[in-house]
Amino acid sequence: MHNHDVPGPVRAIPALDRLDRRITAAMARFGVPLLRIALGTVFLWFGALKLIPGLSPAEGLAARTIEVLSLGIVPPAVSVPLLAIWECLIGIGLLTRIAIRATLLLLFVQMLGTLTPLLIFPAETFLQFPYAPTLEGQYIIKNAVLIAGAMVVGATVRGGGLVPEPSPDLPDARDGAASDTR
User: Domain limits at 118?
Assistant: First the structure.
């Protein structure tokens, strides 16, 4: 059964159905570009903060994480500016769509590093491991949303996009993912 075959309060009232279709079409048209711009803004902004010593609240934890991951080879004086430039490049790439595949690769690699403090610094990232994160832990965990957003943007690099309604000739893509409709 397709979504457009299911009767409901919106479909029962023609004016609401038309409004719903317009809103859904607008979200499909503008959602991915806005997501890409939002991601790019976050990365550029947070990266730029790290270029000014003491301005980023994540600076200390990021420096300690890179120091541990590099086995002490990369000192904070090098790692923080390097991370800042890396994040700025991600932001610029997302905002301009220049080298978007390479940009997304940089993003996913950076996210792997960003998640590691949850494991290597649990005393700093959790009040009670693993269910009560500190503010730093919450800051890191929200990166799951950035990763998911980057996956959506990445799914469109070959020219695809969101479709507001399934084609009547094709099976509803959600038929195979019913658990995602909660």
Answer: 14-158
